[in-house]
Write a structure and sequence with these properties.
single chain, 226 residues, mainly alpha, Butyryl-CoA Dehydrogenase, subunit A, domain 3
């Protein structure tokens, strides 16, 4: 029995831990991937939507709030892409988020983090959509993930596209936590606050996501640590 235990324990340890070199390389890849999302040209449909919000209610403060939405758009869309991966799905999420934010701007607390508020609205919508899809189609692994991979496979097979394709195969909750911490640089505490879960949950998701992604990218995940 002791012999069996000695074989099992290291295996579980390796599953959640990867060597420091692989971890740093993976972090660099994730940051490059996130930077590429931030650098993308924002869709004209979203820019035009924000411009049209000028004539909506709350006219006295509308211009300032609209400008802040515009400034938040690259980060918001990058967050949507980190969740949905598929550009069409992400843009739909951003559009819905902008409309909800505008309609409920009186609920935004002045002086607080607008980007975090917008991301919370977006992620709530994302998981609402997932629940709707699961009610419509039984798919334990997520129908959306399959659609993302199919879409990504059509794109150029560059190193970043490989990262994107393998990210799409991760469960959404793991992908979200990994990109918030590993790409955006949020602390575990800040990520937990945005997601609405315990810090330990975020750490576990990030650790498992790192290991899964590193292995799928062909990195050496053998750790010499005890």
């Amino acid at each position: 029995m002791a012999e069996g235990t000695s074989r099992t324990a290291p295996s579980r340890s390796r599953e959640g831990r990867i060597p420091e070199g692989a971890r740093q390389h993976l972090g660099s890849e994730l940051r490059s991937y996130y930077a590429s999302m931030l650098a993308e040209v924002q869709p004209s449909t979203l820019l035009e939507l924000i411009a049209r919000l000028d004539g909506a209610p709350y006219a006295r403060e509308a211009a300032d709030f609209r400008d802040r939405l515009l400034a938040s758009l690259p980060g918001l869309r990058a967050f949507a892409l980190s969740l949905a991966v598929n550009h069409a799905v992400a843009d739909d999420l951003v559009q819905e988020t902008l409309l909800k934010a505008w309609k409920n701007q009186d609920r935004f607390e002045p002086g607080s983090n607008l980007q975090a508020w917008l991301c919370t609205i977006l992620r709530n919508q994302f998981y609402t959509d997932i629940r709707k899809r699961k009610r419509e189609v039984e798919d334990a692994d997520g129908t959306m993930a399959g659609q993302m991979v199919a879409s990504a496979a059509q794109e150029a097979n560059s190193e970043l596209q490989q990262v994107k394709q393998h990210l799409a195969k991760l469960p959404a909750a793991m992908r979200e936590a990994l990109l918030l911490v590993g790409a955006q640089g949020l602390t575990y505490e800040d990520a937990a606050e945005l997601i609405g879960c315990q810090v330990g949950t975020v750490k576990s998701r990030v650790s498992r996501a790192r290991a899964l992604l590193a292995r799928s990218l062909g990195m050496d995940t053998r750790s010499t640590a005890l």
